[in-house]
Write a structure and sequence with these properties.
416 residues, alpha/beta, globular, binds zinc ion, nucleus
């Protein structure tokens, strides 16, 4: 990775935050950075971490006065078995299994290390570092050393208890959320903090939603500590298949799903944000928000399902800016995104929003080794394409009816 320590292209320290759409308050941001992860060979996203962190660095964001860069503390076996099975953890931590040779072994199959989750060189080091990145970020928030913690290498929302799934080998979102549930010390004022997990990835957050799905608790009138809300696409045959990805009037009101149709664009996100996301947040009133910022719904992603963009009302930046304006602490993680230059643009822009210093979308990509990859625009923006938004008023009314009803039920439980 190219971290230019002498980069002069710093964030403007005299930037006036009053009219930037954020709350204007100084915001302490922790940024988790691992040179090992940045150079990782994660098969689904080769070089994406390097590209993202190089762009963030070359834009001078890591030199902003309110940001502090931390190395992740690698997760221990004990940390990992807080969610994963001991057998799975022992398998992925054994360097012998960080080889393509086990693809054909029955043990590799058993742990899901095949197809889209092949074993790769360094897997045994990758797993503790990715989990450690999100756990370190969570720990910083628990210690009140920051208001926002960012771990772009985290966000692996498909990894299951006992097997890898959907390019995800370790369930860092679940592990970090479990950590946030626990008070940092016996004297902590937050005895039983509430955590809202909000997932903006194109795909349903199956592993996280299932992990915290406790219908007997919410349905029984007792408020659980965790609310999950996933905004995603789902359709027959579209990964991941899960009964929780489509809301029903009888669903658990603390496991919310907002499925969107192809072409979902900023106006659609703006609408559901106003009618569903904000009311859900208000009803639950969490002390922590974990926001998974998968960017495979942006225009230009190889999936080509949504037509979301970075800027403007209802854009990804606007939505994350709204989250930043909420009370409480925020843990910000990455996720999917298979157009690597666009993922880098998005995460750089979101980093600037977390800092309450949003970069203009026409910011030129600075001269750095990865510069040619940002052709032809060579700017920060990821604009929408020409795809038609299939989310009609009729369809959205239907979703709002069901999910709005669930949010109403959640409010009733929370008010008891
Ligand atoms: Zn995804």
């Amino acid at each position: 990775m190219d971290v230019d320590e002498n980069n002069d292209n710093d964030v403007d320290e005299n930037n006036d935050n009053d009219d930037d759409g954020n709350d204007g308050a100084p915001r302490r941001v922790a940024f988790i950075l691992s040179k090992e992860l940045v150079s990782s060979l994660l098969p689904s996203n080769r070089m994406r971490s390097n590209l993202s962190h190089s762009l963030i660095s070359s834009l001078g964001l890591l030199k902003a006065p309110s940001i502090k860069v931390y190395k992740p503390v690698p997760a221990t076996r004990k940390d990992l078995v807080a969610y994963h099975t001991p057998d799975y953890v022992d398998h992925v931590l054994d360097p012998v299994n960080s080889s393509r040779d086990v693809v054909s072994s029955s043990e590799g199959d058993e742990f899901g290390l095949e197809d889209d989750c092949p074993p790769f060189y360094g897997l045994h080091a990758y797993v503790p570092l990715v989990a450690g990145a999100s756990l370190t970020a969570a720990d910083i928030l628990k210690k009140d050393a920051a208001d926002v913690s960012i771990a772009w290498d985290g966000g692996r929302h498909h990894a299951q208890k006992s097997h890898a799934s959907g390019f995800c080998y370790v369930a860092d979102c679940i592990l970090a959320t479990l950590s946030l549930k626990r008070p940092s010390s016996p004297s902590s004022p937050l005895r039983r903090p509430k955590i809202m997990y909000l997932d903006l990835d194109l795909h349903f957050s199956d592993a996280v939603s299932h992990a915290f799905h406790t219908p007997a608790v919410g349905g029984g009138g007792v408020s659980p500590q965790v609310l999950t809300l996933s905004i995603h696409h789902t359709s027959p045959g579209f990964f991941p298949l899960s009964p929780l990805s489509t809301p029903l009037p009888t669903s658990d009101p603390f496991t919310l799903s907002i499925p969107l149709l192809p072409g979902a664009s900023s106006p659609t996100f703006h609408r559901i944000w106003t009618t569903l996301v904000e009311p859900a947040h208000k009803a639950f009133s969490p002390e922590y928000v974990v926001v998974q910022c998968g960017v495979d719904g942006l225009a230009g992603d190889p999936y080509g399902v949504f037509n979301w963009c970075l800027g403007g009302e209802g854009g990804l930046g606007w939505c994350v800016g709204r989250v930043m304006g909420w009370e409480g602490k925020k843990l910000v993680v990455g996720g999917g995104g298979y157009n690597s230059p666009n993922a880098a643009r998005a995460w750089a822009y979101l980093t600037s929003i977390a800092l309450a210093r949003p970069l203009p979308l026409d910011t030129p990509i600075p001269d750095h080794p990865a510069f040619p990859q940002y052709a032809p625009s060579f700017t920060l923006d990821v604009p929408a394409g020409n795809m038609r938004d299939m989310n009609t008023d009729e369809y959205l009314r239907e979703v709002e009816g069901v999910v709005g009803g669930l949010i109403g039920r959640m409010g009733d439980v929370m008010g008891r």
